[in-house]
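Appendix B: a complete holo record

For completeness, this appendix reproduces one full record from the ligand-bound portion of the collection. The bound molecule is coenzyme A. The inputs are the chain sequence and the ligand SMILES; the output is the full three-dimensional arrangement of the complex, encoded as structure tokens. No fields have been trimmed.
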Amino acid sequence: MDQQPVLATDRLLLRPYTLSDARAVQRLCGDYAVSATTLLPYPYPDGLAEVWIASLDEGTERGNAAAFAVTLAGDGTLIGGARLRIEPDHARGELGFWVAKTCWGRGYATEAVRALIEYGFSVLGLHRIHAMHFSRNPASGRVMEKCGMVHEGRLRGHIKKWGVYEDVDIWGILSEQVPPTRMYASPALSRVPV
Ligand SMILES: CC(C)(COP(=O)(O)OP(=O)(O)OC[C@H]1O[C@@H](n2cnc3c(N)ncnc32)[C@H](O)[C@@H]1OP(=O)(O)O)[C@@H](O)C(=O)NCCC(=O)NCCS
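The structure of the chain with coenzyme A bound, as generated:
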């Protein structure tokens, strides 16, 4: 797919990033609280957000990435990010997501991830979507659970984060787990070409 749609949910618009998002991405991803449970660098270096955003089109065109800025439908404020890293040979996508700390606990991650899973299955034709989180980050696991993902196991000492080997939990969902009515007729998800 060479063009990414905008995904609309009840409260959010998930849209492609633009270079003008770079400052917000650096500020919000540079928050220690977001960095601590992701593989984002800390501190978040100047210039990285611009380089990362500029690299996204190529991934979209090659069909191995779908990255969305998560914004409030009301005023367009960027409050998070959600992306799939796609392995086309296996019709498989790895989910990643974050929400600005000031917006935690309002269901935004769940709303965004649901929309992205639905997009991955119904539009990108994926067979499997999976995600990992640090075991010490149960909020992320709860988001995955609420989105219908199944806990598949724990990988011990799988990632070295800031010098410490960390356990991670892995979750997955298969396309056949999602009822067709939700995949193709959800009123909460619409696709608007950009
Ligand atoms: C994880 C994260 C995305 C959650 O975002 P959010 O918008 O607050 O998520 P939601 O509000 O949709 O859902 C959070 C759920 O976790 C629950 N939760 C929060 N803290 C929890 C904890 N310590 N233990 C268990 N559940 C917890 C909330 O109660 C809520 O579940 P509920 O609706 O059943 O009450 C956000 O905290 C974040 O961006 N963290 C930093 C980056 C990150 O860890 N990303 C995920 C990497 S895999």
